[in-house]
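Hello support,

Our group uses your service weekly, and this is the first time we've seen a run hang past the timeout. The protein is UPF0329 protein ECU10_1810. I'm not sure whether the cause is the sequence or the server load. Input pasted verbatim:
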Amino acid sequence: MSIWSLWVLDLVGILCTSRIEKIIEEVKKRYEKALSHELSGAELEIIRETIEEVVGLDTKVLIPFVFHGRRLVISPVTRHQDIEQGEREYVEKVVKMLPILVWNSITCIYVPGDSDWTIDLMNEIFKTTSFEGFDPVTLYKRTRGKCGMRFTDVVMRTFRHNIGMLNRFGQRLAQEAGAKIQEISSSLSDEEKRKEEKMLQIIKEYGESLCTKEKQEEIIKAQEIVCDACTYIWRRPEDRASFLIEAYSRYLHSKTVEVSKHGDIDEPLFDYVDHCSLVSTYEKYKSMDIVGELFLRVFLEGKDINDESVNDTVCGVREREEAEKMRGEEERRKKEEESLRNALELLRMEEKEKSKGKGKKKKGGKKGSGEVTAKMEEEKKDSEEVEESAEAEVSLEEMAVGGARSKERSSKKKSRSKGHRYKVHKRVLRWTKSAERIKAELDEGSEEKWRNKSIEEIEEQKKVHDIIEVCVLLRSLDANRFFVSTNRYMKDGTERWKMVGVGIFEEGGEKKVGKVEVGLYRDKGEGSVIYHLMFKAMDTEKAGKGARSSFGKGDDVEGLEEGAGELSDMSGFEYPKGVRSEIVKGGDAFKIVYRNPKDTSEVLRSLTVLQKAEVL
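Update from on-call engineer: The timeout came from a worker crash unrelated to the input. Re-ran successfully.
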């Protein structure tokens, strides 16, 4: 399913309506806000065609993670007794909503032009169904021996319980779609009648399929695979970190653009995955390594499940398994060599002790001299440890700006706790200049996508690229609390990777949730160089116009060697005279406030980098 289609389906839940003109207007508004330019007539026509053609069926799955503020309170493997006491009441409210959330996941259907009737039908079936005897909260709290249900177990029990309603829903859906085919207005043109009938026929057939055991089992199996995939991801720390950054940014985005239907309760996230493709991939490979990695890619990179994404995943997993096998063999070899070295060293020490014993018999030493020497050595060692401890107390502020050490500290040794070191590429520093100078450099540069941009476009791009103050955070000891590193890849003979954090960009009273992207590569001197730095709004990623996922491998930046001779370590960096920005550091946020240079009391915009979600 295309990224446009996913966005349209997302909007159905937000708008609580399905009039096509209203959806187009909402898409237009969000697209223009995200990309900071007006859509052309051709672009609007593409949107219209996409919305008119798409019919959203059997694509939704529930992601078994629950956030409360900046805390992750439920993971796939969380049991009720594992939940922090202060969060249990909130968690139980979320779990109580599972029946309606699961029902929405199973039956959410987007009908181009008018979905009101399907939404009304969905609500009617749910409200007239008795849930007597099924209480997900009681189920979750129940323990058998010392072990209770995991959150994914409760989710799946709820799915299986709700599947019983699908027969009634499917029958009514097919009946009403059939009736609407007979009622198609004669005032429509032949082409419009054809489109309307085709769409309703698809829905009628889908309703009939929902009554079949095969379709019901497919829905259950798809959600079960997602739950298992999320558990697989959760148990791999390197994957968990990236997954949580993406999930947390989606959670924050949903809070800024949607009004909660359940008051102060934040429901679990949903994603759009083709059920049939997911199930068939699992049936083909029977490997959670492959399916778990595939779902991770789909979730992080916004990809569809198709032959290309499946093949890429299979190759990636096999390469990783081979690398892990080679690494394991190398570690075993090193352990064997180390054991042999230790054995030889022990043998040499024993022989040395024997030779010392023989020497003492021939020549006696001065009484107590050995004890004095040992004491002196111990005092010297303690003195060195105190000196090293003092060295480690270099302040974060000094390290962030590359400042000199305090005079009281030794200048002969380097602090072990010094922050991260990064050089900054010319293409990043370019954005600190005026829009006119940036345009001149881009027009003469080798990057085709940046040529011939208007001054207005450059000024808008400058807002999200001129965030060089983020380097202060990147170089600090706190960087790992805000950013995760992605997998590394090779391009043009250089090793590249990204660091990604969650950010909120504010301007003119509007907030945009997104990610702070940092692109890095390893230079010939084995140093880390920042060649890409920007804030990317979630709406920009959803719009998909030339936008790449923050977690996707690869990029379109070439010719890094062009600016390699003009790298900077950003020590003591200052903006040109007259430009003002202020850094505000808090416990869980790093905020950059940009002010009007002519009137510093006026805030133009701000960027807040948020600490990673806390896992309870």
